[in-house]
């Protein structure tokens, strides 16, 4: 992220340096190497120009300031996004949460009902998609099937005024940078999923966007390719000097690729912050499930948290007022009979609702006094004789729980 | 503002695509007679006239018939005018198909219905309507004559116009169906790369729908080649100028039935050639 040099393909001898036509390609601001990129990092501090009224002198490279409102029948998207150049922001959320709608609104493919969108100080909400300095990597890439990989990448520079030879040279440099120099003449249908993904990324980057949008960039790949492509994508995103926003429903993709997560549910932001913070302190059931935690909401009184419906949980943190309590399934111990030792104060009588293998362990879904997920070894599951409907006692040590203000 | 808000996008992928591929898959559990007998009857009904044409062909005099100047004149005129009418249909019809498939405007449903009207309109009525519009005293023809000295009826250009009038709807409907089946998100992708809607159409959509345009063009060409009613009404029947093959066949049938058969055979051959050319695209695609 600190290496701000890759505004252009760092190839050996690009026939024409892609930076040469920058002025013609971007409606605003010189896209010269950007040295403000150091802000990109956990927490994504809002850029300095956040409060400036529109219409005043736009500063170059102040990043993204967007308030996106899109009304649909029975659905309303209302999210606020800010990001500094160099930031990689992940919109994380379940299907139908409005992530893709937000992405389309940023690209200009879906009109805003209300709100605003400023990129590097330039208002874009009324700018048609073809005039926005925004690049998009679509979920299924949408590479033009009738064009070679090279011509797919050259399409953007061509549309932005480059000559045919110049656009192709630029495209070749981008493909080379993506490690695809050998596939320049290939039609998209002859590319593997990972290669197509990189061509799509090169195609989006070749327009030198000030905002790069990626819609489920890894969803179309099989598990093995995904691992490799994720690592490459992470590298390319880290090199990208402007704002990148990616949409995903996969928490791993989001946490690996992004500096900052914005969790969207039902068209609204429910939590945002650094990946580590979100993983440690989820605030909705959806996030808790994603990061694999049992999450409860209650009212704390010193070390005891009284859950809204349900029993109390004893924690080590001393808090008061509304709080969340979270603990991992692996912190739960199950007993067939009521344990006699008084060490675990968090003891609940439950019933097995379901069992499933989870890696090399068994995950038991429990109902009863407290609904929770518990991980145990296969051996332990066999010794306990677990089966759906079996009664069990579940305990969690106070030290394994984590309480934080709601 | 965006190429998005079109209801066609939602229903797109399934309209306009020919459904086929079920034949033979349904098993062979005995065919009910009430279906089998009419079916065979229909087949005979469709094939018998063609068979009769072949049976009654004067094969011995055929070479002479086919090499006569009149036949070549009519065939040449037919091929030329049908091709010109197809060209007109493509140049004007593809944009119309795009407007119908990709834009939203009031009365679009009505426009689509009007476009398909010539498909069901008796061609003679079409010819009369063309005369009233473009004839020497027609609504527009009057001005064409007065200002530019252009008269269209009873000229080869008139033949092309009559044929295009009848054939263009085939192309428009065919291309519109292909456009609706084509993924409009490619155009969105092009837009995000900086392409205007026209550039996206020219460089992305048109190449993608080229097979559909070709199929529509062949359909339009075949329809134009066989055009009779509108042509004879609007353009008349002047050998060498407006007498196309179908008109020549009809005329020959009065005086020289053998010539009519020979001419018909030529048109049949052309039709079979067209069908064979389309077979790969239409008969085997799924």
Automatic annotation (TrEMBL), chain A:
Look up the record and report any one GO term of the cellular component aspect: membrane
Q: Name one GO molecular function term.
A: ATP binding
Identify the Pfam families for this entry: ABC_tran, TOBE
Identify the stretch(es) annotated as Disordered. Answer: 1-64
Bias (Low complexity) occurs at 1-11
Pinpoint the ABC transporter domain residues: 59-291
- What is any one GO biological process for this UniProt entry? molybdate ion transport
Signal sequence interval, chain numbering: none
Report the residue ranges that make up the Mop domain in this protein. 341-405
Stated name of the protein: ABC transporter ATP-binding protein
Supply the source organism for this entry: Streptomyces lucensis JCM 4490
Automatic annotation (TrEMBL), chain B:
Q: Its membrane topology, per UniProt?
A: Multi-pass membrane protein
| One Pfam family named in its UniProt record | BPD_transp_1
User: From which residue to which does any coiled coil extend?
Assistant: none
Give the family this protein belongs to, as stated in its UniProt record: Belongs to the binding-protein-dependent transport system permease family. CysTW subfamily.
Q: Where is this region: Disordered?
A: 1-26
NCBIfam families documented for this protein: Mo_ABC_porter (TIGR01581), modB_ABC (TIGR02141)
Report TM segments.
35-55, 75-101, 113-134, 146-175, 204-222, 259-278
* Keyword Lyase listed: no
Q: Which SUPFAM superfamilies match?
A: MetI-like
* Function of the molecule: Part of the binding-protein-dependent transport system for molybdenum; probably responsible for the translocation of the substrate across the membrane.
Under which name does UniProt file this protein? Molybdenum transport system permease
Instruction: Please classify the protein's predominant subcellular localization into one broad category.
Output: membrane
Key words, A-Z: Cell membrane, Membrane, Molybdenum, Transmembrane, Transmembrane helix, Transport
List the GO terms this entry assigns under cellular component, sorted alphabetically: plasma membrane
Localisation? Cell membrane
Gene Ontology molecular function: molybdate ion transmembrane transporter activity
ABC transmembrane type-1 domain: residues covered? 75-276
């Amino acid at each position: 992220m600190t290496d701000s040099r890759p505004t252009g393909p760092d190839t050996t001898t690009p026939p024409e340096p892609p930076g040469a036509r920058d002025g013609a390609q971007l409606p605003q601001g010189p896209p010269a190497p950007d040295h403000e990129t150091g802000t990109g990092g956990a927490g994504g501090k809002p850029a300095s120009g956040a409060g400036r009224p529109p219409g005043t002198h736009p500063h170059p490279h102040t990043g993204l300031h967007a308030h996106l409102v899109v009304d649909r029948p029975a659905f309303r998207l209302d999210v606020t996004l800010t990001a500094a150049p160099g930031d990689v922001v992940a919109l994380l959320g379940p299907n139908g949460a409005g992530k893709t709608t937000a992405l389309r609104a940023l690209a200009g493919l879906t009109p805003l009902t209300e709100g605003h969108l400023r990129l590097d100080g330039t208002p874009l909400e009324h700018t048609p998609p073809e005039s926005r300095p925004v690049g998009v990597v679509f979920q299924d890439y949408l590479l033009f099937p009738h064009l070679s990989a090279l011509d797919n990448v050259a399409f953007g520079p061509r549309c932005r005024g480059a000559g045919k030879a110049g656009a192709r040279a630029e495209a070749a440099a981008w493909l080379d940078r993506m490690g695809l120099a050998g596939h320049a003449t290939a039609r998209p249908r002859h590319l593997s999923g990972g290669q197509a993904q990189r061509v799509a990324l090169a195609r989006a980057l070749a327009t030198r966007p000030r905002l790069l949008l990626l819609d489920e960039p890894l969803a179309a790949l099989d598990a093995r390719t995904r691992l490799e492509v994720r690592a490459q994508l992470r590298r390319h995103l880290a090199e990208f000097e402007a704002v990148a926003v990616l949409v995903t429903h996969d928490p791993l993709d989001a946490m690996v690729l992004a500096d900052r997560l914005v969790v969207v549910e039902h068209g609204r932001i429910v939590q945002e912050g650094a990946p580590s913070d979100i993983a440690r302190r989820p605030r909705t059931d959806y996030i808790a499930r994603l990061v694999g935690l049992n999450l409860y909401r209650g009212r704390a009184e010193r070390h005891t948290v009284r859950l809204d419906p349900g029993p109390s949980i004893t924690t080590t943190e001393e808090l008061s007022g509304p709080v969340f309590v979270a603990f991992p399934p692996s912190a739960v111990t199950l007993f067939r009979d009521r344990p006699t030792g008084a060490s675990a104060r968090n003891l609940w009588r439950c019933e097995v609702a379901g069992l499933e293998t989870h890696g090399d362990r068994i995950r038991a879904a429990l109902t009863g006094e407290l609904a929770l997920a518990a991980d145990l070894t296969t051996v332990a599951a066999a010794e306990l004789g677990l089966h759906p409907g079996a009664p069990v006692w579940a305990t969690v040590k106070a030290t394994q729980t984590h309480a934080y203000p709601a | 503002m965006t190429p998005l808000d079109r209801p066609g996008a939602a229903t797109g992928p399934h309209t306009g695509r020919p459904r086929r591929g079920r034949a033979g898959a349904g098993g062979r559990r005995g065919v009910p007679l009430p279906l089998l007998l009419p079916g065979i009857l229909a087949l005979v009904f469709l094939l018998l006239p063609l068979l009769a044409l072949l049976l009654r062909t004067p094969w011995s005099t055929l070479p002479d018939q086919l090499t006569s100047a009149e036949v070549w004149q009519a065939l040449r005129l037919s091929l030329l005018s049908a091709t010109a009418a197809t060209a007109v249909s493509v140049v004007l019809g593809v944009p119309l198909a795009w407007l119908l498939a990709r834009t939203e405007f009031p009365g679009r449903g009505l426009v689509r219905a009007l476009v398909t009207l010539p498909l069901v309109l008796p061609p003679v009525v079409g010819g009369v309507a063309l005369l009233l519009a473009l004839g020497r005293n027609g609504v527009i023809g009057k001005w064409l004559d007065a200002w530019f000295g252009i008269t269209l009826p009873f000229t080869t250009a008139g033949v092309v116009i009559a044929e295009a009038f009848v054939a263009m709807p085939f192309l428009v409907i065919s291309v519109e169906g292909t456009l609706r089946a084509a993924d409009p998100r490619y155009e969105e992708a092009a837009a995000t790369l900086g392409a205007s809607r026209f550039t996206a159409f020219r460089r992305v959509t048109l190449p993608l729908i080229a097979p559909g345009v070709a199929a529509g063009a062949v359909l339009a060409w075949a329809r134009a080649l066989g055009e009779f009613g509108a042509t004879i009404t609007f353009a008349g029947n002047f050998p060498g100028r407006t007498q196309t093959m179908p008109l020549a066949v009809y005329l020959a049938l009065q005086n020289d039935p053998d010539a009519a058969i020979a001419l018909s055979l030529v048109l049949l051959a052309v039709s079979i050639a067209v069908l064979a050319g389309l077979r790969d695209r239409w008969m085997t695609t799924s």
